[in-house]
Amino acid sequence: MRRELGDAYVDALRAAYSGRVPGGADLVCYWFEKSRSALASQALIAAGLVATNSIRGGKNRAVLDAIVQGSRIYDAWSDEPWVNEGAAVRVSLVAFGQTSGAAMLDGHEADLIQSNLEAGSAQVANVTQAERLAANARVSSQGAVLVGPFEVTAEQAREWLKQPNPNGRPSSDVLRPLSNGKDITSRSRQMWVVDFNRMEQADACLYEHPFRHVELFVKPIRASNPRPARRDRWWIHGEHGGAWRAATASIPRYVATSQVSKHRVFVWLPVAVWPHQTVISFARADDTTFGILHSRFHELWSLRMGTSLEDRPRYTPTTCFETFPFPAGLTPLDTAHQRTEALASGALIPADLESNRPPALASQAPAAPENAAIRAHAIAIAEAAHRLNTLRRNWLNPPEWTVRVPEVVPLGMTASPYPDRIEPRPGLSEADAKALQKRTLTNLYNQRPAWLASAHQQLDAAVAAAYGWADYTPDMPDDEILRRLLALNLARAAD
């Protein structure tokens, strides 16, 4: 919006609608709010607008929340294809106002239409009522925005890591592997990124080759950037990710998912790997948290609470994660210290589950069961999650077809600070090499073989037990799960 309209206009617009339209919402949201205001003053009886389908979630949905509080949505098409001047997008058509008669959603009669443009009734949980939970704060975030071609190939990065710098420091200070959403759902592109964090230019230029790359390729682009900080400090990422660096300073790995993906899958990434802006990351290293995130319950919640890009679900930390009610005793607040305990299998559970809660925040997490029960649930979830991840890893990179190769040791260091990389085995046949390239998480979840479905069912059973749902079976309806999760969310938000 700033690029098209300029800083002065955007700042004035946001100031005029402060408290009514969230910062960062799409431009069309201001027209929804303008129409709602006209309805409230009786200047309008009804209104109808077209927006991209992202109006249904995230910050954009706030304007629809306000509309259904003061009037109602009486006709809507939630997710339709739209081609305009060759650009194919998905849109939502929304009509609202003080009208009578049955509501129509996607051409079918509905009791009511919720602000996420789904049908609602007394029997269906209205998850748009869910509130953000203090216990989930400061854990999940979107990867930092680079703003410029800071990316380099792995080959180029390895070559620079072998070169000396005038300050005597290794280039590993400013070079790290990069993962974007496509790297998670497909095979890795093997890209790296130049990352000067918050260095001053006088310090950054001492890393000769990385700095030269940024000077040649990033600086010319940033020269016309309307934001002074990005224009003047062109060698630094557009968003340097300071909060994320602090959140992961004491852990060796973190959980990640592609922001937009056909399947909601989660993976482990070493902390040395920088998350691209198309990645949503979670600052936890234990398999218990990983397992809860990868359960049917969180997947279902995120699908209802998120938005979409075209026909692919989009995960938004504020609505999908910060509202999600974890099992009691295993909330992000309970694992805030980030310490882990290793099990014999190699799985990691949160350490000191009951004693790690900061005293000042103790009242913000739900009352937990006895420590022994919490630990038992944590172990069951972690073991199931660890098994799922191991099976998937073996399928993605069969040891018969791949080999683990130690990453380059930077000049001046005795060991590599980077994770090993996986390469095809020398002499691998052409047919097997082609088959290996097709082994991606997207293809795996498209196929969903019996072993994968079984592993997920085992994980779901462990997570359901942690919720205390003794009646859970794989046949439990989605609406019943959402009803229970919403009740938990609202109860905790009220505490």
Tell me what you see in this structure.
- The chain is of the alpha+beta class and 495 residues long.
- Among the domains are: 2-124, no CATH class; 134-143 and 252-397 and 439-495, no CATH class.
- It has 19 helices and 21 strands.
- A hairpin with a 2-residue loop joins β4 (103-105) and β5.
- α3 (28-40) packs parallel to α4 (61-70) and α12 (287-293) crosses α15 (371-396).
- The longest helix has 26 residues, at 371-396.
- The model has no long low-confidence stretch (mean pLDDT 92).
| Shape descriptor | globular
- What's the gyration radius in Å? 24 Å
Distance between the termini: 38 Å
Structural class by sheet pairing and helices: alpha+beta
Portion in helices: 25-40%
Contiguous helical run count:
19
Low confidence ranges: none
* DSSP summary, beta strand count: 21
- Please state roughly what percent of the residues sit in beta strands, choosing from under 5%, 5-15%, 15-25%, 25-35%, 35-45% or over 45%: 15-25%
How many strands, what sense, and barrel or not for the largest sheet?
Answer: 5 strands, mixed
Widest sheet: strand ordering: 1-3-2-4-5
Mean pLDDT: 92
